[in-house]
Amino acid sequence: MSEIKQALEQKIVSRQAAVVVIGMGYVGLPLAVEKAKAGFQVTGLDCDSQRVQMINEGKNYILDVSDDEMRRLVASGKLSATDSYSALVGADIIVICVPTPLTTNRDPDISFIETVADGIVRYLRPGQLITLESTTYPGTTEKVILPKLAVKGLKAGQDFFLAYSPERVDPGNRHYNTRNTPKIVGGVTPQCLDLACLFYRQTISKVIPVSSPAVAEMTKVFENTYRSVNIALVNEIMMLCDRMGIDVWEVVDAAATKPFGIQTFYPGPGVGGHCIPVDPYYLVWKAREYDFDTRLIELSGHINLQASYYVVEKVRDALNSRHKCINGAKILILGVAYKKDIDDLRESPALKIISILRRLGATIVYHDPYIPSLILEEQSTVALSSKILTQDEISASDCVLIITDHSSIDYSWVCRHAQLVVDTRNVTKDFRESREKIYRI
Questions:
Q1: CA 428 to CA 6: how far, in whole Å?
Q2: pTM higher than 0.85 for the full model?
Q3: Coil, strand or helix: which one is 362?
Q4: What are phi and psi of 10, to 5 degrees?
Q5: Quick check: is 216 in a domain?
Q6: 205 and 236 together in one domain
Q7: Helix, strand, coil percentages in the chain from 3-state DSSP, rounded to 5
Q8: Which of 179, 211, 243 is the last residue of a domain?
Q9: Using the 8-state DSSP alphabet, how is residue 152 labeled?
Q10: Partners of 400 in the β-ladder
Q11: pLDDT in tens, 292-336
Q12: Among the options 97, 275, 399, 415, which is catalytic?
């Protein structure tokens, strides 16, 4: 065993390793908090000065992080934040948790990863472990990051250590969190793998090594592509059931009683979050390099997008049933976050649905207890603010459209006072009162 590797192992086991987490969002901040709780000295590095200030003041902005733990860790000096790469000077372990969005043409945008790698190489020294957690296409760690780090002449697996370990964050999940969600790790060399697994085992109950970073990268995009394809299937069944006059929710619930051979997915207004609407396109893009056409994966993306247009059609049909036109109608949207009981607006289908309805001439107001305001990027930037949910606001709307089924909303009360309700989440399934004015997708 090399002296460099042995020294870093000792630092990890004794929790004396200095950790820098780059990107303090939904992945980075919970990870930083978990490492600081374990006794590591953790610095969060982020280009957002507001995030940096909030962390240093002990103010939490992620629902999955405990406010009390955050304040305690900052007060104890175990957790701090900065916007300067000079924080890497004393870093033993660097974890990259930056966004990986899509371009307007739905191609991968790994510019944040590349920028971070360029920043790291300026401070790279022997004895450092770098792990990438950002979702990306297979080959990124070894073909993008490794060449950038190698320009200083240091050798991976000997002088420094590089691995990929995909994030598996599910915002709002009350059962699975950073600590108890199994962690996949792939190292550039066996030595890299050993150190990365050792690091993650300090705070994560189960660590699963795989043979390479590419396997770990493919695992991540496969997991979310699997969900995208299955959601697309049930969304297509939803649209077919609508044509046939069959209740798709009853079909899904009935199929779920089979004890083998099926996993339950539910229809909805589209897909949201950073993973499902984005990750499959990373695989689609990469497949083209190998002259491979990922037809099923691409089709699932089209179907899930079509689900948002289908919701608009249901609103149009519901209004038509009351002899009203969508042009000029006031529509109250309930819930714009991409899933219930969280404050995450990323890629939410509500944004697409609102934009389509506005183009058709509808007046849109919304209520979401987790999203106080939102920006629509249309022909011109449009800002909307969440309305207080009152009886007057509900009754004055031509249609109430339930997109996100937040637990804090009394849907029975909403339906009593609404003129018309379109329910995309089946929250009105058991309602007997007001049934005549409720339309479910």
A1: 60
A2: yes
A3: coil
A4: -65, -40
A5: no
A6: no
A7: 40, 15, 40
A8: 211
A9: G
A10: 332, 421
A11: 999 999 999 999 999 999 999 999 999 999 999 999 999 999 999
A12: 275
Q: Which residues pair with 19 in a beta bridge?
A: 42, 93
- 380 residue type, one letter: S
Say yes or no: 247 and 392 in one domain. Answer: yes
- In a domain, residue 108? The reply is yes
Q: Tens of pLDDT along 161-210?
A: 999 999 998 888 888 888 899 999 999 999 999 999 999 999 999 999 99
Domain boundary among 144, 178, 211: 211
In a domain, 332, yes or no: yes
Does the annotation mark 325 as catalytic?
no
Instruction: Tell me, yes or no, whether 393 and 299 share the same domain.
Output: yes
Sequence-separated (6 or more) residues with CB below 8 Å from residue 339:
171, 172, 272, 273, 404
CATH number of the domain at 88, please: 3.40.50.720
The partner residues of 386 in beta bridges, in order of sequence, read 366
Query: Which helix (H) or strand (E) is 118 found in, with range?
Result: helix 111-121
**Segments forming the whole domain that contains residue 31:** 3-211
Is 281 in the same domain as 202? no
Tell me the three state secondary structure of residue 423: strand
Asked if the structure places residue 217 within a domain, the reply is no
Other beta carbons less than 10 A from residue 423's beta carbon: 23
* Same domain, yes or no: 275 and 385: yes
Report pLDDT for 64.
Answer: 85
44 three-state secondary structure? strand
Question: Domain count of the chain?
Answer: 2
Model confidence band, residue 369 (pLDDT cutoffs 50, 70, 90): very high
Spatial CB neighbours of 244, under 8 Å, sequence gap ≥ 6: none
